[in-house]
Amino acid sequence: MTTAPRRRLTPDQRRAQLLSVGAELFAAHPYEEVLMEEVAERAGVSRALLYRHFPGKRELFAAVYQQAADRLLAATRLDPAETLVQQLAQGLDAHLDYFVANRHAVLAANRVLAGDPVVQTIMAEELDALRTRLLAVLPLAGEDARATVSTVLKSWLVFVQVLCVDWLAEPTCSRSELRDVCIGAVLGALRPLLVVDPAPGWDGRAV
């Protein structure tokens, strides 16, 4: 185990350092095995200083997960110049990249901390932001259709979240198959509601 040398940092720099160390530990170990003492030791700070920034492990985890959600939203770019399938595939790939690299953290957020209101709010706000972005690129017939499509997207995003978490815990298909199941599910649900086919000729596989 490596310990960072002690050095003076501004409060913002120290917080960023602690978040980085926390993210590494939550990614590498199950939530129950991550100790605040180890976070402090790896960061080269006292436990008192760590607790001034984060009162407990849940608060540290929530901050780590908020940072991850912000980065995922930044990485999920819906480009109207691309087809809907390409946009969906890009967004799903960005999330799956994070889920695979941070399996323990994702399982902790969705299972161990399933009752934590702060963590659940972070995930809900990210899903709402993704739904808003998808609504902006879909060919809608009017406000009535918008309300219906919005409800469908909300349910689909929850479906994707549950499916991906289950897949992380026990992968029963390949990653590409998982992604294409998610895309196929939303296309099947949206086709009756849109003015044009959102993916004409799609054969069930995102290239």
UniProtKB/TrEMBL annotation:
Residues 12-72 form the HTH tetR-type domain. It holds the Pfam family TetR_N. Keywords: DNA-binding. Residues 35-54 bind DNA. InterPro entries: Homeodomain-like_sf, HTH-type_TetR-like_transc_reg, HTH_TetR. PANTHER family: HTH-TYPE TRANSCRIPTIONAL REGULATOR RUTR, TRANSCRIPTIONAL REGULATORY PROTEIN (PROBABLY TETR-FAMILY)-RELATED. This is TetR/AcrR family transcriptional regulator.
